[in-house]
Amino acid sequence: MPVEHRLALTVTAAIVFVIANVCPVVHISLKGLHNEATMWQAAAALAHGAAAPIAVPAALTIVLVPFMQIALLLWVLTYAYSSRRAPGFAVAMRSLQALKPWSMVEVGMLGLLVAIIKLTSFVQVAPGPGIWANAVLMVLITIVAKSDLQWLWELTEENHDAEVAAE
């Protein structure tokens, strides 16, 4: 897949990521009372009560790590698009490799679906725009961040060698 396509998918992932984390994931109603929660609010809610030990790992794997992956990919791909190697390229690439197993948007999505199914027997539940954005993000993260990035080393190697030789 050309750099232009990966960059476009990464920009799309960044936009969808914002929607997924700003918009409510679920709307809950019970006897006239309504509530809704975003991904951040869900992670913060875990911090209170018996589930507190999993609040930080949940926030890391479903919010912070995907954000870091998208940001690093935008950094590296923007430079690769102009046939250059980004400053800090090696560190960014190693970080992307290290983050791969920790990005668990799909696990978060599965958890959301299970929670919604379980809640429907107690309260009225409606999916919010955030859940649809998370579904799209799950696909985009899989395409752009979890694929092999070796090609970026090779693509930027030739131009990097030429830049170093010119100095």
Automatic annotation (TrEMBL):
The chain crosses the membrane at residues 7-30, 50-81, 102-123, 129-145. InterPro entries: PqiA-like. Pfam families: PqiA. It comes from the Bacteria. Keywords: Membrane, Transmembrane, Transmembrane helix. This is Paraquat-inducible protein A. It comes from Comamonas thiooxydans. The lineage of its organism: Bacteria, Pseudomonadati, Pseudomonadota, Betaproteobacteria, Burkholderiales.
